[in-house]
Give the backbone structure.
Amino acid sequence: MKARIRITLKNGVLDPQGKAIQNALSGLGFKGIEEVRQGKYIEVDLASTDEAAARAEVEKMCRELLANTVIEDYAFELEQRT
């Protein structure tokens, strides 16, 4: 299975990198950008073919290493590899 994990800062957490991206876009002439928030995208290939086991494993990965759950939210989707 393949896990596609998206990690973003929680609402209310300052995002200086997002602000830097917003400023750079504005400097390049892009108009109407109200806010930019940046995050992380991670793909993990799993040997497991059991969706419930894979879901539990990815959930544990996110909680224990991939996301700082104090300031970040995460979401993921699983896809069967063919």
Q: What stands out?
A: The first strand starts at residue 2 and ends at 9.
